[in-house]
Design brief:
With about 400 residues, this protein is of the alpha/beta class. The protein is about 25% helix and about 25% strand. The chain has two domains: about 5-45 and about 150-215 and about 320-390, FAD/NAD(P)-binding domain (3-Layer(bba) Sandwich); about 85-145 and about 220-315, D-Amino Acid Oxidase, subunit A, domain 2 (D-Amino Acid Oxidase, Chain A, domain 2, 2-Layer Sandwich), CATH 3.30.9. The chain has helices spanning about 15-25, 55-70, 75, 95-110, 120-125, 150-160, 205-210, 285-295, 345-355, and strands at about 5, 5-10, 30-35, 50, 85, 90, 115, 135-140, 145, 165, 170-180, 180-185, 190-195, 195-200, 220-230, 240-245, 250-255, 255-260, 305-315, 320-325, 330-335. About 50% of the residues are buried. The structure holds flavin-adenine dinucleotide (FAD).
């Protein structure tokens, strides 16, 4: 006989595990199915930068809520997240000056500790940063980064402590319906019943939606991350930097490493098969991004390349997620397509999604902005920058 749950989640990334934690805490009998292991998708390879710099109020509030969880992780969730507070700096040229200023004003209005800073302030924070082409900078003292694998495992363990069941190495191969209602899922060997099924499959989100015959605009896109070992005289950690002028981000990693990646909208064009893509770093990428980072942070010119990897973003047309019931009143939901910036939103995302699944009428974070129909309604999420990942 099929095992029965109140809710089934497909995918044990940060969203699946955070949602499972929130549901299990409410006494919902929840099962999570994961084709690999915790963090098998985007989460486990995330740069895991935690900043509140967003263009819209909802994501800014979600980032702030999540920051508080990362700051008090052991109390709020249990276990560790590896959160390291280094501060966060956003750098803009004339093109993005107005956007940066508007964002900082909005962020302050929702309670985020952030400010525009002067060239002298910036020099004090990061003396080795080149400011030659800068017009504006903003700073968040509370920004930093976490350890994504620690975080997702802690969320899973917390969910389990509250009664959630995890099926690892168990791929969901079908979503089952009786008429218009979802009734469960199937794997290669079994079926499992539940009146609620959540597609939290990240870069596989479109595939899982297709199991129910639904097309969703989520592309699985290959992106790269590389590391530079800083010279010994620059071994101390540095703040997270998002450089809108050179379309890069970089942050300290443990030891004397700097982790670097792109914020290039072109990354949306690198669509790949999520089960069959090149996970190795392109040698050219190290040279190209190295040049872009050196312009801002000349210390890197004297660093050694320390490898890197390629991983997947789940990218939607406006670089914001789909959080919705995919077929009205069916019980089949989605929370996927976090487009390269969902890690930091994980704690609030779990709350938003659990509220949606349990029908909370006045949720702290309404998913309306992330509804699937926004594209058909020509009402996509918009931001202040062409770099939608920062929007
Ligand atoms: C290189 C890189 C850098 C990033 N940097 C940042 C950053 O600095 N800050 C930030 O906030 N975000 C960042 N992100 C984005 C962030 O990591 C993602 O938005 C977030 O992890 C998405 O979580 P998720 O749970 O939606 O998806 P995922 O973590 O991808 O989880 C989906 C899970 O579903 C499973 N799955 C798929 N299909 C099935 C199936 N049929 N059956 C069972 N299981 C299935 C997969 O194995 C996977 O584990 C980055 C991402 C990458 C790749």
């Amino acid at each position: 006989m099929a095992q029965t749950f109140d809710a089934i989640i497909i995918g044990a990334g940060i969203m699946g595990c955070s949602t499972a934690f929130q549901l299990a805490k409410r006494g919902v009998k929840v099962a999570v199915f994961e084709k690999g292991y915790y963090g098998n998708g985007s989460t486990g390879r995330s740069s895991a930068i935690i900043r509140q710099h967003y263009s819209n109020e909802l994501t800014a509030r979600m980032a702030l809520h999540s920051l508080r969880v990362f700051e008090n992780f052991d109390d709020a969730v249990g276990g560790e997240s590896g959160f390291t507070k280094t501060g966060f700096i956003a750098l803009a040229s004339a093109k993005d000056k107005a956007g940066l200023e508007a964002n900082v004003a909005m962020q302050k209005s929702v309670g985020i500790r952030t400010d525009l800073i002067s060239a002298d302030d910036l020099r004090r924070l990061m003396p080795d940063l080149s400011q030659h082409d800068l017009v504006e900078a903003a700073y968040e003292p509370d920004g930093g980064y976490a350890d994504p694998n620690l975080t997702v495992t802690s969320f899973a363990n917390a969910a389990k402590r509250h009664g959630a069941t995890f099926f690892l190495d168990t791929e969901v191969t079908g979503v089952r319906f009786a008429g218009d209602r979802v009734v469960g899922i199937s794997t290669r060997s079994d079926t499992f019943d539940a009146p609620i099924v959540l597609n939290a499959a990240g870069p596989w989100g479109a595939r899982v939606a297709k199991m129910a015959g639904i097309d969703v605009p989520i592309n699985s896109c290959r992106v790269q991350v590389t590391f530079f070992r800083r010279p010994p005289e620059h071994a101390d950690p540095h703040p997270v930097v998002v450089d809108f002028v050179n379309a890069t981000y970089f942050r300290s990693e443990t030891g004397d490493l700097t982790l670097a990646g792109l914020i290039d909208p072109e990354e949306a064009n690198a669509v790949v098969d999520p089960d069959n893509f090149n996970e190795q770093l392109d040698p050219d990428f190290v040279l190209e991004i190295g040049e872009q980072v050196v312009v801002r942070y000349p210390v890197i010119e004297h660093s050694h390349s320390a490898g890197g990897y390629a991983a997947l973003y789940a990218v939607t047309p406006d670089w914001h997620p789909l959080v919705d019931e995919l077929i009205p009143d069916s019980g089949f939901f989605i929370s996927a397509g976090f487009s390269g910036h969902g890690f930091k939103l994980g704690p609030a995302g779990g709350l938003m999604i659990a509220d949606m699944l349990t029908g909370v009428s006045d949720p702290e974070f309404s998913p309306h902005l992330f509804r699937l129909n926004r594209y058909a309604e020509n009402d996509p999420v918009t931001g202040q920058y062409e770099y939608s990942i920062a929007g």
